[in-house]
Amino acid sequence: MSEGGILVTGGAGYIGSHVVRQLGETGRRVVTLDNLITGFAESVLYGDLIEGDTGDRELVARILRQHDVDTVIHFAAHTVVPESVSNPLKYYGNNTCNTRNLLECCRDAGVKHFIFSSTAAVYGIPESDRAWEDSPLAPINAYGTSKLMSEWMLRDLAAASDLRYVALRYFNVAGCDPEGRIGQSTPNATLLTKVACEAAVGKREKVYIFGTDYPTPDGTGVRDYIHVEDLADAHLRALDHLEAGGGSTVLNCGYGHGYSVREVLEMVEKVNGAPLPVEEAPRRPGDPPVLIAGADRIREELGWVPRYDDLEAIVSSALNWERKLVSG
Ligand code: UD1
Predict the structure, then answer these.
(1) Entry pTM
(2) Within this chain, do residues 219 and 163 fall inside the same structural domain, yes or no?
(3) One biological-process term from Gene Ontology (predicted)?
């Protein structure tokens, strides 16, 4: 195991906080940088939390130096697809320009390893029923493009320096820490499972189904929902890979099968034991009909074995967290 520190940007956010927790549990030295705009200080269960921005060059350089960082895990980003369509420069500013700044600081400080939160949105509308890592890259929203530009910056920097990286392309992340210590608290959340669980506990009047005329079996969008605990574990496996001298790589993070919006809502109803108030609505801008991972490469290259590939377990953990938020 390397002795260097690990900087987690966005470590107070939904996925980042699960990774910080898992790193802390394995005894790793971790420091979080988060501007706390969408993150929560109380979600950071291990290591120091520094409030600030990845675009702040002096701050980032100081953290890398003071914490003797040799690995950066970079989550800090805006992530809402429809917002990226209506406000693209916000996404290019934070997701692309700030990542460039962070990478420059990493280069100057001699950081060795970089793990990047990328997204399935880089594929746009895949030509086949699965998106594989070598499928065409054709994002249909600024969110996907902003992340793809960062992947390419990483690729080019790695070719020109000693930095090695793993870019993880997340499919649809859902669920919470199975022990209920942390979860997804994002205000004005847009993610289907979160929205549905909020409706289930009475925090929302209803759930809208965005699009019922897609070319899918029940007409609603199909996604590959991955439990946040398995996704967090993929980061730890990526870290092991880099520390063992493994080469740079780009990997899908999904289970390789999908559920429709209606199937997810039915599962929430089943777990909650009550019908959900649902309304059908037009398609949402920027949404592909189907997005499912070709999910073999991550198993082969990282030896990643998912433990929570079960929609009921995903929904149960999300609903438990939502109930906890409601009960204060
Ligand atoms: C999510 C991620 C995005 C990632 C993508 C990969 C966030 C905020 N979004 O976006 O970063 O690139 O997965 O696939 O982390 N839906 C409804 N009603 C709702 C909400 C959603 O019908 O109230 C539908 C959507 O139209 C879509 C599906 O549910 O068909 C999933 O949507 P959502 O949970 O918002 O995730 P993505 O937009 O896929």
Answers:
(1) 0.96
(2) no
(3) galactose catabolic process via UDP-galactose, Leloir pathway
Domain encompassing residue 247: 5-174+225-253
The DSSP output letter for 107 is H
Return the C-alpha torsion angle 46, 51, 172, 142, nearest 10: -160
Least Cα distance to 120 among 238, 303, 290, 236 occurs for 290
Same domain, 206 and 243: no
Atom of ligand 1 nearest to the CA of 174: 34
**How do residues 213-224 score in pLDDT, each as one tens digit?**
999 999 999 999
CA of 154 to the centre of ligand 1 (A): 26
Nearest-atom index, ligand 1, CA of 286: 38
Tally of domains in the chain: 2
Q: Is residue 238 part of a domain?
A: yes
User: Is the distance from the beta carbon of residue 195 to the nearest atom of ligand 1 less than 6 Å?
Assistant: yes
Q: Is the CB of 81 under 6 A from ligand 1?
A: yes
The whole-number pLDDT of residue 285 equals 84
Alpha-carbon span 76 to 10, nearest angstrom: 4
CA distance linking residue 194 with residue 175, whole number of Å: 8
Which helix (H) or strand (E) segment is 34 a member of?
strand 30-34
Q: What gap in Å lies between CA 125 and CA 127, rounded to an integer?
A: 6
CA of 190 to the centre of ligand 1 (A): 7
Residue 17 CA to ligand 1 centre (angstroms): 20
Residue 190 Cβ contacting ligand 1 at under 6 Å = yes
Residues 58-77 have pLDDT tens digits of 999 999 999 999 999 999 99
Tell me, yes or no, whether 131 and 25 share the same domain. Answer: yes
Domain containing residue 113: CATH number: 3.40.50.720
In this structure, the answer to whether residues 88 and 130 fall within a common structural domain is: yes
Question: Are 200 and 301 in the same domain?
Answer: yes
Tens digit of each residue's pLDDT (9 = 90 or more) over 150-191: 999 999 999 999 999 999 999 999 999 999 999 999 888 889
